[in-house]
Design a protein that fits this description.
By secondary structure, the chain is α/β, with parallel strands linked by helices. The protein has ten helices and eight strands. Strands 1-2-4-3-5-6-7-8 form an eight-stranded mixed β-sheet, with helices on both faces. α5 runs antiparallel to α7. It is globular, with a radius of gyration of 17 Å. The two termini are about 25 Å apart. It comes from Streptomyces narbonensis.
């Protein structure tokens, strides 16, 4: 584990393997451990970095008022700390919104983008009534007493959490900090990155679960229509957490794309 201090918070990340740099950015309510199968599989060919964003996993507490641009700056600091030049950067769900904000402010650090089951922010990708329903659902979840707090969002899996990753999923769930999740979901509800999409000039892979109920395929098609020359790969029969529901197919798609754009 390595740590870089940025914006008053210690940001932890793991690094494994050798070769071109691939950076993996996790979603809300989890941490860098969600990328375990990809880190292990891709390290034979790439330098694979997976962070714990501020307020998550082994990183320090989220400072008050920490915004989307602050998350992007923290991610930029990790890429600079690794020191291997521009990275191929993958973000799943909320992580994809953070990655888009990174590209907005530091395109020099991004060699290619991998947008995974993600959004241009909820405001940018979902109907207003759906955003309202999600905000209300988050409010109820976060109002629960600490001993009853369950950070599991609805609709993450097409067929339930994969049994082979049950232990790591349980461990991540126990470690979620309600204050961090509140900040993540609030920022996601207000984010709208759609203005950025037509200005993306790096190679872009859109990698989606066919049965994603949280970021449906029409969101992927909207990304594809907006981002010049974006490539869409759909993984059959899986949902929002496609990297864990079909890790072999997911990793193969990432490897093929990253090889093509080193």
């Amino acid at each position: 584990m390595a740590v870089v201090r940025v914006g008053g918070v210690d940001v932890a990340y793991t690094r494994k393997g050798h070769g071109p740099l691939v950076v993996l950015v996790h979603g809300a309510g989890v941490d860098g451990r969600m990328w375990q199968p990809q880190v292990e599989a891709l390290a034979d060919e790439f330098t694979v970095v997976s962070w714990d964003e501020p307020g998550s996993g082994r990183s320090g507490e989220l400072p008050p008022g920490f915004g989307l641009a602050d998350f992007a700056r923290a991610l930029a600091a990790v890429i600079e700390d690794v020191g291997l030049g521009p990275a191929q950067v993958a973000g799943l769900s909320w992580g994809g919104t953070v990655v888009l904000e990174l590209y907005r402010w530091r395109p020099d650090l991004v060699k290619s983008l991998l947008m995974v089951d993600t959004y241009a922010g909820w405001k940018g990708s979902l109907p207003p009534e759906e955003v309202t329903a999600r905000v209300e659902g988050a409010r109820r979840m976060l109002a629960a007493p600490r001993e009853e707090f369950d950070p599991t969002l609805p609709g993450l899996y097409a067929a339930g959490p994969p049994e082979r990753f049950a232990a790591v999923l349980d461990a991540m769930s126990r470690d979620v900090r309600p204050e961090t999740m509140a900040a993540q979901l609030s920022l996601m509800a207000e984010a709208d990155e759609t203005d950025l999409l037509p200005r993306i000039t790096v190679p872009t892979l859109l990698l989606w679960g066919e049965r994603d109920a949280r970021s449906p395929l029409d969101v992927a098609h909207a990304f594809q229509a907006a981002i010049p020359h974006a490539e869409l790969v759909v993984i059959p029969a899986v949902g929002h957490m496609s990297n864990l529901e079909a890790p072999e197919a997911f990793t193969a798609a990432v490897r093929t794309f990253c090889r093509a754009h080193v």
